Amino acid sequence: MKLLKKLFALLFMMTTSMNLAAQDENFYIFLCIGQSNMVGQGEITKADKQNISDRFLSLSAVNGKDRKLGQWRKAVPPLCRQDTKLSLVDFFGRTLLENLPEKARVGVIHIAVDGCGIDLFDKNNCRQYVANVKEDWMKREIAAYDGNPYQRLIQLAEAAQEEGDIRGILLHQGETDAYNDEWLRKVKKIYDDIINDLDLDPVKVPLIAGEAVGEDQQGICAHANPTINRLPSMSQQFYVVSSKGCEAGPDHLHFTADGYRELGQRYAVKMLQALGYEVTDHRVEVINPVSRPTIDVTAGIDDQGILFAQANSPLEKVEVVSYSGQTLSVITCNGKQTVNINTNEFPYESKLVFVFYGQNGATESIEMNRN
Questions:
Q1: Which of 110, 172, 223, 254 is catalytic?
Q2: pTM of the model
Q3: How does pLDDT run across 319-366, given as a tens digit for each residue?
Q4: Which string of b and e fits 272-303 if b means at least 16 CB within 10 Å?
Q5: Is residue 53 among the annotated active site residues?
Q6: For this structure, is 254 an active site residue?
């Protein structure tokens, strides 16, 4: 297996289209992973393909008419795959170059699969996750990465390390499953695996994550945001950017092209700050979730289908949400710290998300299985 990995990396180096010689410390490389909002769903305009700097490159993670696996290409959208659309990565890279020294270059390795759960990027759980995928379109997207997106990411990153420095990781994922502490632990494990497998210094490699479409845009997965916003509690190298004000499309799940442009700029600003650059841009809202009020809730469902929940501070209300993001019920708490909810009232839902709103302004989301 080690020999195959070495041969794979050597193949990438031999076929690299840009004749980039020795490792260049001014070549900033970023790993970009996630699900559909990382893939990108924004309509690409003619302007989006113009005036792209030669210093902004994409290392192709798949083959296509306009790209070849393992070769660098100018970062002309679409970046993820030839049949995808505009993503936040496009304007992440452009904004970085506007603020980095002129000698700097930016390279991205962009691997994402629509609708996937976080386990797809866990090297220990990927095989089992893929075996249980039912959707044909997801199977096709995963197959483009030879059935293992994590392995493809590491192989490409190893080759890229011969030319530049990996300086950060971008994550946009969670609409599918970011509703409990387990998701946080899985993200931390994936980050640690990447750091260890690539022999990186975590102090120099921040992870930037973004919120799902927010409540201000009637986001149907906005209930994932309380969990996403707790990522910085898992590591000093983890940061979150707000999606507030980033325009959503009519499905209220994905952003519009303008939404991706804005979100990509916010990722860039936060990444620059995490790397030690001073950035002054009051138009961009970059949040520090650690400073937000918090609330801790313990909950469980008994054999009769009754959820018992206990919070450590007064509750304003509890929202019961389907796994697809539809609000099913709202329970007013009036400052109580305990609440009982009969889940039998929702017989057609095998999974439910309970969003607890504290009177201190904090929120906490918990995913529970009814059966």
A1: 254
A2: 0.80
A3: 888 765 677 899 999 999 999 999 999 888 888 888 888 898 777 888
A4: bebbeeeeeeeebebbebeebebbebebebee
A5: no
A6: yes
